[in-house]
Amino acid sequence: MTPPTICKAFVMASGKGSRFGRKPNDPPKTLSTVGGVSLLERNIRLLDMAFPLDTIFLIAGSQPGAIMQAARTFAKTQANIQIVEATKQEIAAGLLGGFAAIAPFVEPEELFIAALGDEYYDGENHIKFARAATATKEFSALCAIKRCQSPKDSGRNFSLVFDKSTLQVANIREKDHNGNMEYFGLGLVCAKGALAHAAQEQCRKSRIISPYELINELPGTALGCEFSCKYVNVNRRTDLHRARNCARKNERIPFNVDVVIPALNEEDSIARVVADFKKSCSQVIVMDNMSRDQTARIARKAGAVVVTQPMGGYGDAIAKGLNLCTAPILAITEADGSFRASDLEKLLPHLLKADAVLGARTCERLVQPGAFMPYPLRLGNRAVGLLLSSLWPGHKAHYTDVGCSLRVMWRDAYLDIRDDLKGQGPEFAPEVALEIMDHGLRVAEVPVSYYPRLGGGSKLSGNYQNSARTALRMLRLILSKRIRKL
Q1: How distant, in Å, are the alpha carbons of 14, 151, 152, 174, 285 from that of 178?
Q2: Helix (H) or strand (E) holding 38
Q3: Of 69, 259, 309, 418, whose CB neighbour count within 10 A is largest?
Q4: Do residues 303 and 214 share a domain?
Q5: Using one digit for the tens of pLDDT, what is the confidence trace for 304-343?
Q6: Residues 110 and 204 both lie in one domain
Q7: 17 contacts: CB under 8 Å, gap ≥ 6
Q8: Residues 442 and 402 placed together within one structural domain of the fold
Q9: Do 92 and 206 sit in the same domain of this protein?
């Protein structure tokens, strides 16, 4: 018997209930990133790697424009990418409607692949699945399955009975909360087109049934392919945290970090700052806002990547620098030498349990002689941090210094909040802190040392007048964003 040919795969890219956020325009959860790559693109890559596909269809039940725009940025694949917009009836039917949208593209006896775009797989079990799917054994559907580690596994997915001797699957039940099954099914299936046509028929009848449960009604044998990789079905933000934790465990110490340094006329200090942070970072990016002195030349000679261009201010320089970073971990520091790489190394281990770690200059013992951080300023920092924390009571963060610019975050966290960052000046620092809370990300705050400037005068602090001006800009942004987010 000739092994079957599988030319088409369908990925559920967006649909009813596919958003984390409270705002209607928040992106579909499939576009949430893990390891700097969206869940949707990760699943496309896995399918493209495992199968010699002609076309991968992305089923868009909501926000097809967002899916289309994201698809343009995906890494090149062997298969063609095509967007399929589900009808209103299909969207209303949920996942059943997603499978119904496949029907016009497959014949009843034609094998196809269907996958959920919001699942995280850590491993290469897709190749094993492809081998099983293209074996000569006849089947109506092949389901990717895993052994239950918790009774909740079958409640989040679908339960089934799996016979290891025959590899046969039976008694599929969606969202089975009984917790007495040994195996549960994943969102990846290879099935005959009859499954999509059956879903289309049930969708027309407005029947409420899972497309996976329809496998029970197909003629022929359903088989299972057991996966051993780490797997997360991303339904909630807590699931996204779990998926990111899985990916981050692959990071090795020392961490791979890019640091961004905004600079304006810092020729007295920039060489020492670049040399210091090069010891801890893969890439030092100096964002030079058209300095009139030798800042750019000195930084470049010290080994930094230097970008010289007009920028809107401190915050704009940082944002543009973060967009240039390629490492999984992003860091920010000052060009004046007020922070040291030794404190950066103190922040990094906390990223194993957090999405972002902010430094805090409010510990008097860590403020070095000569640094401008008098008691009234420390008290003001605490007050602004308390205000910010109290305005987002649903988050457990308790900030004491939202203006400290020494901070680190995972690239995923930055991509989550990037589109909501609008501050051009020093207000960018608390804006990052508040958007971290507003997006439900995990944040830690760690006391760091604060040193006197190595040269020149501070543009944002350094005296009470500059500090007050900076504080007012921060408060204006915090309050305006709180009002807009109500």
Answers
A1: 29, 8, 9, 11, 54
A2: strand 37-38
A3: 259
A4: no
A5: 999 999 999 999 999 999 999 999 999 999 999 999 999 9
A6: yes
A7: 94
A8: yes
A9: yes
Is 80 exceeded by the pLDDT of residue 184? yes
Examine the fold and report which residue of 248, 276, 309 is the final residue of a domain before the chain moves on: 248
Q: Last residue of some domain: 210, 229, 248?
A: 248
Angstrom distances, CA of residue 220 to CA of 58, 70, 186, 428: 28, 38, 20, 60
* Per-residue tokens: 27: 């992106």
344: buried, middle or exposed (CB in 10 Å: 19+, 13-18, 0-12)?
buried
In a domain, 1, yes or no: no
CATH number at residue 117: 3.90.550.10
Measuring CA to CA, how many Å separate 348 from each of 251, 280, 354, 356, 373? 12, 10, 10, 9, 24
446 and 402, same structural domain?
yes
Same domain, 238 and 263: no
* Percent helix, percent strand, percent coil in the chain, to nearest 5: 40, 20, 40
Integer CA distances (angstroms), 36 to 27, 39, 129, 272, 412, in order: 16, 9, 25, 31, 5
Same domain for 218 and 265?
no
- What torsion, rounded to 10 degrees, do the Cα atoms 453, 454, 456, 457 define? 0
Q: How far apart are CA 446 and CA 153, in angstroms?
A: 36
Q: CB–CB of 328/344 below 8 Å?
A: no
Two structure tokens written together for 40: 């949707």
Q: Is 92 helix (H, G, I), strand (E, B) or coil?
A: helix
pLDDT: is 154 or 38 the higher one?
A: 38
Domain residues for 327? 257-484
Beta-carbon count within 10 A of 147 CB: 13
Given a contact cutoff of 8 angstroms between Cβ atoms, the answer to whether 476 and 427 are in contact is yes
Number of separate domains in the chain: 2
Determine, yes or no, domain membership for 84: yes
CA-to-CA distance for 66 and 27, rounded, in angstroms?
Answer: 7
User: pTM for the complete prediction?
Assistant: 0.88
Q: Looking at the domain assignment, is residue 308 inside a domain?
A: yes
